[in-house]
Amino acid sequence: MILEKYSFGVGDRFSHQGKAQLQAFIKAKGQGVDITPVWNKSHREHTIIKTTHASVRKEADDAVSDLNWTGPYLVDADHIGLKNVDLFIDSSDFFTLDVADFIGQAVDEGDVKSFVEKYKKYVGELAIEGIDEPLVLSEEKITEIAKKYLLAVKEAGKIYRHVEAKKGADNFITEVSMDETDSPQTPIEMIFILAAIADEGIPAQTIAPKFTGRFNKGVDYVGDVEQFAKEFNDDLAVIAFAVKEFGLKKNLKLSVHSGSDKFSIYKPINHALKKFDAGLHIKTAGTTWLEELIGLAMAGGDGLEIAGCIYTGALSRFDELCGPYATVIDIDKDKLPTPDEVNSYSGEQFADALRHNQSCEKYNLNLRQLLHVGYKIAAEMGDDYYNALEKYEDIIAQNVTENIYERHIKPIFLT
Ligand SMILES: [Zn+2]
Questions:
Q1: How far is ligand 1, taken at its centre, from the CA of residue 100, in Å?
Q2: pLDDT at residue 201 above 90?
Q3: Would you place residue 45 in the very low, low, confident or very high pLDDT band (cuts 50, 70, 90)?
Q4: Is residue 233 pLDDT above 90, yes or no?
Q5: How do residues 285-294 score in pLDDT, each as one tens digit?
Q6: Which of 213, 253, 282, 302 has its CA 20 to 30 A from that of 4?
Q7: What is the pLDDT at residue 180?
Q8: 3-class SS at 36?
Q9: Distance from the CA of 97 to the center of ligand 1, in angstroms?
Q10: Packing angle between helix 288-299 and helix 301-316, nearest 10 degrees?
Q11: DSSP-based three-state secondary structure for 80
Q12: Cα 172 from Cα 160, distance rounded (Å)
């Protein structure tokens, strides 16, 4: 299976917005840009919401057949490891092998030695097309990188072969992810990570590094945009080099995780993709569920009531809900509205506070982040929540489609 040049991960916690999401891709196609939708839902989300892995596949299949989508589409086993991959085998055809936990773990000395032996031919200055200054490499540097990353790549190899044995090599797409770690990978590290991926025989079509800056869930990028732009460009240059040098898949591309709502880096991403004629996989952070809340609020009546209940519920269970996401949210508790304030909001006020429109004064990124992790409250409402999604399907769908198309697809791929 080949992953097309542009692909876009859509998360859908409650599996009701498949069609509304697909509409955004249909709109892009209407503008002449083909983007493959990839439905993703992590093991953590499945556990919290108590949904089955098969439900994501069904949602995608149903949306595709209802809207007569003839392009490719995929279902992502997002951030899996050997421990939970089996749950995703049947329903998925895209596997995000998450090996971040293995970075820096002790690796066999002999493996390090033979890796360094093989790659010490790059010691000295290495000029890479697209990077201004030549990279300076030493044997010590390569040793250090091998010690830090070799075990992680070997783990990716194990997971890959496990999936391959069950599904067959041509029946799925492989991504290697190292984004959920503290420090970004440098271009030099990327070269040897990619070399190791080639050595392991992993036919990766996308790789998710950790970039500089903070990629908090559902809000804009926080960090040095210029530094990000440089890193992104350098990574594209390194990938183009590594593909030729190590014989990796020709369509290997970068994957940006938690890529939704990172409005301030879309322009540099767009420029870099054009400059390198590169592809991109961008994963969103499951913010479709926030569009459901916006739609419910805008519907007014019991829709608005449900949105208010979810906020007050989330506020009262702040620590429990934020805990699993502590490293990817930054909420200033003092700036959260009180339950009384929120209960007095009109539908429009609720939507304005939540919708990610930075030019709107009423937008509150603290409220947005809290609601983002508050989906457990909606899940606990069970049928009350699902029935409201069905009752207010139209207004919710409008918001879901508009968010993906106008705020994401357009600035990244269509300008
Ligand atoms: Zn990730």
A1: 9
A2: yes
A3: confident
A4: yes
A5: 889 999 999 9
A6: 213
A7: 87
A8: strand
A9: 10
A10: 130
A11: strand
A12: 10
Compute, in angstroms, the gap from residue 165 CA to the centroid of ligand 1: 25
Q: Which of 188, 194, 203 is CA-nearest to residue 150?
A: 194
Cα of 387 from ligand 1 centre, angstroms = 31
| Ion ligand 1: residue ranges with CB closer than 5 A | 179, 257
Compute, in angstroms, the gap from residue 78 CA to the centroid of ligand 1.
8
The pLDDT tens digits of the residues spanning 123-153 come to 999 999 999 999 999 999 999 999 999 999 9
CA of 299 to the centre of ligand 1 (A): 33
Six-digit token pair at 219?
Answer: 């809000």
The pairing of strands 74-80 and 94-98 is parallel
- Rounded to the nearest angstrom, the distance between the alpha carbon of 328 and the centre of ligand 1 is 11
How far is the centre of ligand 1, averaged over its atoms, from the C-alpha of 177 (Å)? 7
C-alpha of residue 258 to centroid of ligand 1, in Å? 6
Distance 179 CA to ligand 1 centre (A): 5
The answer to whether residues 377 and 389 touch, using CB atoms and an 8 Å cutoff, is: no
Q: How far apart are CA 201 and CA 196, in angstroms?
A: 9
Smallest CA-to-CA distance from 177 within 251, 112, 121, 99 is with: 99
- pLDDT at 108 exceeding the cut of 90: yes
Q: Over the stretch 178-196, which tens digit does the pLDDT of each residue have?
A: 998 889 999 999 999 999 9
Span 371-391, mean pLDDT? 97
Structure tokens at 21: 């999401």
Contacts with 180 (C-beta within 8 Å, 6 or more apart), sequence order: 79, 98, 100, 210, 257
> What angle in degrees, to the nearest 10, is found between the helix axes of 347-354 and 301-316?
50
Is 43:86 a contact under the CB 8 Å cutoff? no
How many A from CA of 180 to the centre of ligand 1?
A: 6
Closest to 207 in 3D by CA, of 229, 239, 182, 183:
239
Summarize pLDDT for 265-292 with one digit per residue, the tens. Answer: 999 999 999 999 999 999 998 899 999 9
Q: Which two tokens stand for residue 209?
A: 């590094």
- pTM to 2 decimal places: 0.96
